[in-house]
Amino acid sequence: MSTQKALILEQAKAPFVLDTVPIPSPGLGEVLVKVKASALNPVDCAIQAWGIIVTSYPTILGRDIAGDVEQLGKDVQGLSKGDRVFFKSQFFRTEYGGFQQYALVSASSLGKVPSHISYDQAASIPLTFTTAAVGLLPEKPHGAGLSPTLDPSVKFPNESALVIGGGTSVGQFAIQILNFLGFKTIITYASAKHTDYLKSLGATHLVDRSRFRSITSAPIKTVYVAVLMPMPGTQDAGYACLAPGGQMIVAIPEPVKREEDPEGRRVIGINASAPYYAGFMDIMWKKLPKMVEDGAVVPNRVEVLPNGLVSIVDGLKRLQNGEVSGVKLVVHPQETPIGELTANLECLMNTVRQHTV
């Protein structure tokens, strides 16, 4: 059986271990992908550090993947070996994660990479675009219901929205989705160093919290909190901006609990892998590649880490320590130094074992 290199989380809150595992075979309706780029996300840090979300170990993390179709499972149509594809890892199981050199995916849950973007750029999109999209677009109660079919004719030309954390990967995509929907005013709280870039994505104003009401007197019916680990009071600040009947989307599954609001305001927590989004996800993956091709969705800016899988642990530490801003960290699993690993595998594995995020 052929083997590959993978970064494995053997149990909850354990250090990562670099090891050799079998290359899986695609099942019915599945595709085996040679992983050319895999992006790091704060949720990877949270799973390893806090033991959340994942219920079965060992597991391989890495939710954002881009690569080449290597093998087709039974009944897969519309794809060929060598096609460039990008996708969000569907399950927290070893065969599906991106922190390895080959991964499985359902053929219905991927898109072809547009020719004008790189694997690295493509890998910056799936998870964080999905997180932004499922909060804003699907039908209520699990989404804000702004455009469940991603119909380009649906516009909100007289409405204003606020994105807290616009410089994050999720925040950048929330801004772009609101721009796609034609919102008149898109205000964001983010570091001033990102002003020009966020305006290029569709933000109309980047402000301090204190200046918010000097920009628009229009009611804010849509607030997106795009911060995975928000500071105390962040959700309160967003909620305080909501007009009666407004909706605040929070990019975590369990936002601050709120009593029933007499003015009809509501809070939506996001779990991008929840089964009730399945129908919307089918629609999204049919339309997302064309949106990227047309420039309606722009990938995150990326920073590529050297030495493939070996660099993931240090990259996740940087994320956890708040040392990454405005870019997506990406690794190339195929560039894991195989020759060096052959000679010094135990030394490298011990080094990885000694680090914890």
From TrEMBL:
Superkingdom of this protein's organism: Eukaryota
Q: Which CDD domains match?
A: enoyl_reductase_like
Extract the GO molecular function terms from the UniProt entry: oxidoreductase activity, acting on NAD(P)H
Q: Which residues form the Enoyl reductase (ER) domain?
A: 13-331
Q: Which SMART domains match?
A: PKS_ER (SM00829)
Looking up InterPro entries in the UniProt record yields: ADH-like_C, ADH-like_N, ER, GroES-like_sf, NAD(P)-bd_dom_sf, Trans-enoyl_RdTase-like
Q: Which Pfam families match?
A: ADH_N, ADH_zinc_N
Q: Show the PANTHER family listed in the entry.
A: HYPOTHETICAL OXIDOREDUCTASE (EUROFUNG) (PTHR45348), ZINC-TYPE ALCOHOL DEHYDROGENASE-LIKE PROTEIN C2E1P3.01 (PTHR45348:SF2)
What is the recorded name of this protein? GroES-like protein
Please give the organism: Gymnopus androsaceus JB14
